[in-house]
Design brief:
L-fuculose-1-phosphate Aldolase; globular; 7 strands; alpha+beta; 7-stranded mixed beta sheet; 232 residues
Length: 232
């Protein structure tokens, strides 16, 4: 669907937000009206899922268009009540162009159980994102919540909010979704390992160091929370 007022960029991003929302919904990363997804346009304005909507069933014209203060442009739909999470990340990171805030069940459960998702256990994660830092609890729907992640978005693309959900930052919508995919898959593996063993041991520091050293030869330059001690 292409509105006469939309530029090609806006039409593409509105459609992509709907597709990514359906993907997240189909994978049970969000249920009901949970979660929110945004993309930043070249003019610095933000397209974001509207308040109270089920993200698996959105149409492009339902997407809210807001400025960097979170105010709706052109009297369009009201943005998600958690628009503040997105604004904080865009303020801190000029390179971020898309954000997915979700409630992936295994990852959230592990924060409730007090399992540290930063622990270096899974090689692919160690080499790519490092680990998953967790922000302290903040009250949803208040300005307190976005502030809990401000110190983490500078050093990580992937983070958990205690007892609440995940925030993944991307260079585009698929990138933000991919990191959510990785995060919940990791949490699922750790969950299964916990059930099987009870308590998990990190890989030896020397192995972690060797894995981090492969990043350069693999050409991986993205932020890595083990390299920069994010959330420590």
């Amino acid at each position: 669907m292409h509105h006469p007022r939309w530029t090609d960029e806006e039409a593409r991003l509105r459609n992509a937000i709907c597709r990514i929302g359906k993907l997240g919904y189909d994978r049970s990363y969000i249920v009901g009206a949970d979660g929110n997804i945004s993309a930043k346009m070249q003019d610095g304005t933000i397209l974001i899922t509207p308040t109270g909507a089920m993200k698996g069933f959105l149409e492009p014209e339902q997407i809210a268009h807001v400025d960097m203060t979170g105010k709706a442009i052109d009297g369009g739909p009201k943005p998600s009540s958690e628009v503040g999470i997105h604004i904080v990340a865009y303020e801190e990171r000029a390179d971020v162009k898309a954000i997915f805030h979700a409630h992936p069940p295994h990852a959230v459960a592990l924060t409730i159980a007090g399992v540290d998702l930063q622990t270096p256990i899974i090689p692919e994660i160690i080499v790519t994102i490092g680990g998953i830092p967790t922000a302290p609890f903040g009250t949803p729907g208040t300005p307190e919540l976005p502030e809990t992640i401000r110190h983490l978005v500078g050093c990580s693309d992937v983070m958990m909010m205690q007892n609440h959900g995940s925030v993944t930052l991307g260079t585009n919508l698929m990138d933000a979704y991919k990191k959510l995919d990785m995060l919940e898959h990791t949490a699922k593996i750790l969950w299964l390992a916990h059930v099987a063993k009870g308590g998990l041991d990190p890989l030896p520091a020397e192995d972690v160091r060797k894995m981090l050293a492969t990043r350069a030869q693999l050409g991986i330059t993205t932020r890595n929370t083990l390299e920069n001690d994010c959330g420590a």
